[in-house]
Specification:
This protein is α/β, with parallel strands linked by helices. It contains 23 helices and 10 strands.
């Protein structure tokens, strides 16, 4: 965007804000107009009281209580109206600003939920946090002074009108301040915008660096990289600091200039007015009146300056927020429904998928049919495409080619939420919220404690949960840090089982569980899933887990290489045999 375009973009932004909250803005504008009108009104009230109460009292040596009460009452009434205007302007302007912030944070968050998983993978978490927080805050920082700046137009109109009626020459001299202010603001915006944009970008960078350090705390501490991470964060923080200092220097130069411009107007009025008094074209009282009225203009001019000075950063925030709101790639949904009961039927026809940054397909021409009620194990080396298949089944992404159907219905034609009512996925990397164990299992859905305990028993998690002092009410740390890796996996498994899915997908979901506990989990799953009448797809390495399956699918380099029972593949597939036996040998060596 050209730098000269900041003003036009900023005005469109202000128009958007007004359309978003028209009633609150109108109320704030009325309050500001009342404040502006009463500011001039105080001068008129004091003038009336001086001319009709004070001067006659000095001349006559006496006055009446009625006149004194009338003069005092008029000044108090105007002052009270001015206070009402100030309160209305400030309160409603604040309401408008914070409502807009809340509205746009919700919109950004909803957009995050709509955008596909691959879009999120291309953007650092810190940047996404910055978009939803500091960028939205910066975007609407211009709103607080906006009603005041527009509302005091009443003050400007009244004061300028009075100045023109008193002496047009002095009025025109004083009003030269407006084009001067516009010129100063043009230069200010030209200098401010690129620095403001850099500052907002660095906020996201610093947030990303902090997020990575916190997420990798275990790696950082165990490898003794604290100093390196501190230096990395310090480097990003120092860049942000230097950029903000540069912003402060620019503001430090231009803010005093914008403050001084009205005062220059007053000086110009006094100089020209003095010359006109010498020429006999103006009375001294008229000069004082015009100078006083122009001092009233100083505040609305500064108010306009505050708005204009905030526009560059608000436009930068708007660009960064609009980048998220305008992002495309939302997964389409239809109106289709899966069956309500019984195990699901799963079918993949010529499914292919490639990540945007990859030159090769992660999954290529995969054809797989899983009959209802069957348990199928997917086995393959690292990088074979197993987790990609899981992501496709969960519809985190859509295939580039081919189709995936459940109960004969393409996933892309299902209504929003229909797939999650049918499929439950237990990933290898478990995420737990900083909440109670009950909420981590139910995730806010309506399940009874009996249903939760039944799922925990099936996942072999009931023992350690019941041993906790608060049981289901125990609050786990962020990401479940107060639990072991195996305990977290069992809670995640219970989270899926409590929903009694018709298709359960386990992505190496017992990798952190010791063999004895895993054996009990598998025994429970054999009986529990048979009773639940569910179809199961399990990504596994351990032969004990693979033994759960009715059929094994061996994948390599994104394709299905062989399929059959575990015994059949051991007998005829050297790659499969080497993979699963090597894992068992490694496990025995470690033991």
């Amino acid at each position: 965007m050209p730098r000269d375009d900041v003003m036009r973009r900023g005005l469109r932004l202000l128009a958007t804000a007004i359309r978003e909250e028209p009633r609150i803005f109108l109320g704030a504008l009325v309050g500001s107009a009342l404040y502006g009108g009463m500011t001039v009104g105080i001068a008129e009230a004091v003038g009336w009281a001086t001319g009709n109460v004070l001067l006659p009292a000095f001349e006559q040596g006496r006055t009446t209580a009625g006149l004194l009460a009338a003069g005092a009452g008029l000044v108090i009434a105007v002052s009270m109206l001015k206070i009402v205007g100030i309160l209305g302007r400030k309160i409603l302007a604040g309401m408008m600003q914070y409502r807009l912030m809340a509205t746009y944070r919700r919109r950004v968050t909803r957009q995050y939920l709509r955008l596909p998983f691959e879009w999120h993978q291309r953007h650092p978490t810190g940047q996404l946090l910055s978009n939803a927080n500091s960028d939205v805050e910066t975007l609407w920082s211009v709103i607080a002074p906006l009603p005041m700046a527009l509302g005091v137009v009443v003050m400007v109109v009244v004061a300028v009108g009075s100045m023109l009626l008193t002496d047009p020459v002095l009025a025109l001299v004083g009003l030269l301040v407006f084009p001067l202010l516009a010129a100063v603001n043009y230069v200010y915006q030209k200098r401010m915008r690129p620095v403001a944009m850099r500052s907002q970008e660095l906020r996201g960078t610093v947030s990303s660096a902090a997020h990575e350090s916190f997420e990798g705390a275990l790696v950082v501490k165990t490898l003794g990289r604290e100093d390196d991470e501190a230096r990395r964060f310090a480097k990003e923080s120092e860049q942000l600091r230097d950029t903000n200092i540069k912003l402060g220097r620019i503001a430090g130069v231009f803010d005093p200039i914008m403050e001084a411009v009205p005062n220059l107007g007053v000086l110009a009025v006094l100089v020209v007015g003095s010359l006109r008094i010498d020429a006999g074209a103006l009375a001294a009282g008229e000069l004082v009146k015009v100078a006083y009225l122009f001092t009233l203009l100083a505040f609305p001019i500064r108010a306009f300056g505050w708005v204009l000075g905030s526009l560059p950063r608000s436009v930068v925030g708007w660009d960064r927020v609009r980048y998220v709101l305008d992002a495309d790639g939302e997964l389409p949904f239809g109106a289709g429904e899966t069956q309500r009961e019984g195990p699901a039927r799963l079918r993949l026809d010529a499914v292919s998928f490639a990540y945007p940054e990859s030159a090769t397909d992660a999954v290529k021409d995969v054809n797989l049919a899983v009959p209802a009620g069957r348990t199928v194990a997917v086995v393959g080396p690292t990088g074979a495409g197993k987790s990609t298949l899981v992501g496709l089944l969960a519809r985190l992404v859509d295939p580039r080619g081919g189709s995936i159907t459940v109960d004969g219905i393409d996933l892309r034609t299902l209504r929003r939420g229909a797939l999650s009512d049918t499929i439950a996925v237990v990933p290898q990397q478990v995420f737990l919220f900083e909440d109670s164990l009950r909420e981590n299992v139910t995730l806010g859905d309506e399940f009874t404690d009996e249903q939760v305990w039944a799922a925990l028993r099936l996942a072999q998690a009931d023992g350690f949960v019941s041993a906790l002092a608060d049981g289901l009410d125990t609050t786990v740390g962020e990401r479940g840090t107060t639990l072991s890796g195996g305990q977290r996996q069992r809670i995640a498994l219970a989270r899926a089982l409590v929903r009694r899915p018709r298709l359960l997908v386990l992505d190496d979901a017992t990798s952190s569980v010791d063999p004895q506990v895993e054996a009990r989990i598998l025994d429970g799953l054999r009986s529990g899933l048979r009773d639940a009448d569910a179809t199961v797809l399990v990504v596994a390495y351990r032969q004990s887990t693979i033994a759960l399956a009715d059929e094994v699918v061996y994948v390599a380099q994104g394709q299905i290489v062989d399929r059959g029972t575990h015994g059949e593949l051991l007998a005829r597939s050297a790659g499969y045999r080497d993979l699963v036996t090597a894992y068992e040998l490694d496990t025995e060596d470690v033991a």
